[in-house]
Amino acid sequence: MPHVPHRMLLAGRDGARLAGELATALPDLRTRTVTHGPLSAEDAAWADSYTGFSVPPNLADSSVRWFHLPMAGVDRVIEELTGHDVVLTRTVGGMPAAIGSYVLAHLLADAWHLREYAAQQLAARWEPLPSPRVAGRTVVVLGTGEIGSGVAEALRGAGFRVVGVNTRGTPAAAFADVVALPDVGPRLASCAALVNALPLTDGTRGLLDATLLERLDGAVVVNVGRGASLVLDDLRAALDAGRVRRAVLDVHETEPLPAEDWRWTHPQVTVTPHVSGPTEPEDVVEAIVAARAALAVGRTPRHAVDIGRGY
């Protein structure tokens, strides 16, 4: 018989709220709220599952066999969980749609010259700029998973033509076309925007480098994947050369972004504090309920993570 988790530790400030909602959704699941950090000997022996943003340093000495992340990005915990006999699941929820709306908002702001008009208003200057052109313009999205597909669906609704990029060029329903990463070069030269929606793995770390950015011709770059996928010196050079017209950066290799970082004050960079994909408590509850139901019948949960591959 498959093992059905019955005793879960809920770590973090939302633990008490999650406990209340899980008591209604899964009345046979017993929970305890704990702080992030090492597990007490009692909790380590009692729990068979854990929900939290970080891995307790003594997890290997516990009875936990299912680790659930209340967020979509898993790069923070992969190294700590490598070699552990645990199932890792993550929370996606409404994140694809939220990130899609974030990307669309910034691309429409660029098309409608909203930053320029805001500056004009401060100077009481009346200067109509070229009319926006959205319909048919191409946006290249790196990543065709749930997040990338959410971005594609939002942009298609506004009239953009969205080309997806993945490892092998495997088709994905949300995209007008999908190309393999080695073949993306010609698409970059004519795109209006490049969006990174990839998870952080060994293969995506530093992926957005000079080789890729120099193929652009005045495009907007939006990073909603992971900060470490972007080579900062190469981005700055591409901005200075006009290859990148504007960079919209919601994710950063160091968070919070240090106050002295050049991105805060660069006139062609928009910095936001990792807000494009909020995780709501109800999303976490739904993800836990769905994952536990799958585990109970011996199936791999939909949002299970291959720890070896990193996503």
Which properties best describe this structure?
single chain; alpha/beta
Task: Give the total of beta strands.
Answer: 12
Helix and strand composition category? alpha/beta
Number of helices: 10
Overall average residue pLDDT: 96
Shape: elongated
Strand coverage percent:
15-25%
As an assembly, this protein is single chain
* Low-pLDDT stretches: none
Sheet of most strands:
7 strands, parallel
The CA-CA distance between the termini, in Å, is: 27 Å
**Helix and strand pattern:** EHEHEEHEHHEHEEHEHEHEEH
Helix percentage range: 25-40%
Short structural description:
The chain is of the alpha/beta class and 311 residues long. It has helices at residues 15-25, 41-46, 75-81, 95-111, 114-122, 146-157, 185-190, 210-213, 232-241, 281-296, and strands at 7-11, 30-34, 49-51, 66-68, 87-89, 138-142, 161-166, 177-180, 193-196, 219-223, 244-249, 269-271. It has a seven-stranded parallel sheet. Strands 2-1-3-4-5 form a five-stranded parallel sheet, with helices on one face.
Secondary-structure map:
Blueprint: E1 7-11, H1 15-25, E2 30-34, H2 41-46, E3 49-51, E4 66-68, H3 75-81, E5 87-89, H4 95-111, H5 114-122, E6 138-142, H6 146-157, E7 161-166, E8 177-180, H7 185-190, E9 193-196, H8 210-213, E10 219-223, H9 232-241, E11 244-249, E12 269-271, H10 281-296
Parallel strand pairs: 1-2, 1-3, 3-4, 4-5, 6-7, 6-9, 7-8, 9-10, 10-11, 11-12
Helix pairs in contact: 1-10, 4-6
